[in-house]
Specification:
This protein has 496 residues and is α+β, with helices and mostly antiparallel strands. It is built from eleven helices and nine strands. The longest helix has 59 residues, at 395-453.
Length: 496
């Protein structure tokens, strides 16, 4: 009887606790509808973030799933989501596009990319210029055809007195034929200009090599941009998962404090709820912005929902000596500086050849049909033609001195470029090693959380989920830093 009275007396307290819980859930559901509250907006009623701990447990799938109780360690490949078998992105039944990093890079760098086409055209222009100079080494063959009719006699009429026969007679002395046809074929072979053409060919060849060294840069830049956006979106998604879990914990604390019979100061809890709502709103906006940016690179609508497959870890062993040697041999900046030296030396030699007379061999055949009546009907010729500028008041000498100074400048620029590239390779190599160590460390932490996750209980599920999301965000950020450092180092090495 005494126990039944106690239960009857405790019933109003349970009812009051249930009422408070329902009111808190109602306020929580209102916050779900308005979770996109911008930063800095305050309200008299605390806004709860749209987070539910039970749903987050299913959303936070591990990046490296092995068998139960045996998570993969080290460089294990991620298998949270199966990779697409084909090169085209796969669309799931819910309309979400499943895409890998390789798919994104291939789709963002099509063959008709204007920047790629521009590089190819620059190479083609340099190549055709070089071939045009090369053709000048051979004889230049030309032809002329004329067919003219004059309305007057093209000459002088002379009157001659005939003393014996008496009277006078008119005799025409033609200088040109009134009806004339001329066909001429000439061939000119440069002799001394061949030395100048040789130096000009060196300059054109250097321009072509520079254009080829720079032709692949747009493709590598596009792939690097896609890779950066891809990883930033992965990091933003994990950060969003983390703030959602933290917001759920804050909401649970607020509900417990609201249902407690003890008087509790609710100001700090309200501020925590507003801060959690703002954090979720900021993280959600960040995900939407990065998704729209990546969709724009891929040519898809901005609101296309993407499911990103975490890329496999990619670690490469590159020694500092190997990277420096390759960079000094194949770096585009070094190649351009070396070819500038070649061009400057060729230009200096070309100016010195201005002291050499221009000599050419010339031959031809002409058919003269009354063009010049005093000349034979057809004839051919062969000979040498030479020209030389006797006085130019020191112009050639000053031009040569200027060209020698430019050649010396190009050599100094080459030394400075090599020193700059070597220093950049050294810094990039150290940054690569630092990023690799950080990436390996975050992966070990992720593997440790996998072991901890295999033995968690229902009460610590949200804590494990928060740790998982935070570590994965740091892991993907470390992977991005490593890949960006590797891309910079390979660009310096001339590999794309």
């Amino acid at each position: 009887m005494k126990g039944s009275k106690a239960r009857i007396f405790h019933a109003p307290g349970c009812w009051w606790y249930s009422t408070i819980t329902l009111v808190g859930c109602f306020v929580f559901s209102v916050a779900v509808a308005g979770q996109n509250l911008p930063t800095g907006v305050s309200s008299s009623v605390p806004q709860l973030p749209a987070t539910v701990g039970v749903r987050l447990k299913g959303q936070l799938s591990p990046v490296y799933e092995g068998k139960a109780g045996n998570p993969k360690q080290g460089n294990a490949s991620p298998t949270a989501t199966p990779r697409a078998a084909s090169s085209e992105p796969v669309t799931t039944q819910s309309g979400v596009r499943l895409i890998t990093l390789e798919n994104a890079q291939e789709k963002a760098a099509p063959a008709d990319n204007p920047m790629v086409r521009l590089g190819q055209l620059q190479v083609e222009v340099a190549r055709q210029t070089r071939l045009g100079t090369k053709s000048s080494f051979f004889p230049q063959i030309g032809s002329t055809f004329e067919n003219l009719h004059f309305n007057k006699f093209m000459g002088q009429l002379l009157e001659i007195h005939r003393p014996i026969q008496g009277g006078t007679t008119t005799v025409g002395l033609p200088l040109l034929g009134k009806d004339q046809t001329l066909v001429a074929v000439t061939a000119t072979q440069p002799i001394t200009p061949l030395f100048q053409l040789r130096e000009l060919y060196k300059i054109n060849l250097a321009d072509e090599r520079i254009a080829r060294a720079k032709a692949g840069m747009p493709v590598s830049e596009t792939a690097s941009k896609v890779e950066k956006s891809y990883y930033e979106l992965l990091v933003a998604q994990r950060q969003l998962d983390f703030v959602k879990v933290k917001a759920t914990e804050t909401a649970n604390k607020w509900l417990v404090a609201s249902s407690s019979t003890m008087p509790v100061a609710s100001g700090s809890h309200d501020e925590d709820l507003i801060e959690a709502s703002n954090a979720v709103a900021i993280a959600t906006t960040r995900v939407k912005e990065l998704t729209a940016s990546l969709n724009d690179m891929l040519g898809w609508p901005p609101d296309t929902e993407l499911q990103l497959v975490p890329p496999d870890p990619r670690f490469e062993d590159i020694s500092l000596r190997e990277a420096t040697d390759k960079a000094l041999a194949a770096n585009p900046e070094v190649i351009e500086a070396e070819q500038n030296v070649v061009k400057a030396r060729a230009a200096s030699t070309l100016q010195k050849l201005a002291y050499v007379p221009v000599v050419a061999a010339m031959g031809g055949y002409a058919y003269n049909s009354d063009v010049l009546p005093l000349l034979p009907r057809d004839f051919s010729f062969i000979g040498l033609v030479a020209t030389y500028n006797l006085f130019d008041f020191g112009k050639r000498e000053h031009t040569i001195k200027g060209a020698n100074a430019q050649a010396e400048m190009a050599e100094i620029a080459l030394q400075l470029t090599k020193a700059k590239v070597a220093a950049s390779v050294k810094n990039s190599h150290f940054e690569l090693e630092r990023s690799r160590q950080l990436s390996e460390l975050t992966r070990r932490l992720d593997s440790a959380i996998q072991v901890q996750r295999a033995s968690y209980d229902e009460n610590s599920a949200e804590i494990i989920a928060a740790k998982k999301a935070k570590v994965e965000a740091e892991m993907f950020q470390a992977d991005l830093d490593y890949r960006q450092a590797l891309a910079r180092l390979k660009t310096l090495m001339g590999e794309r």
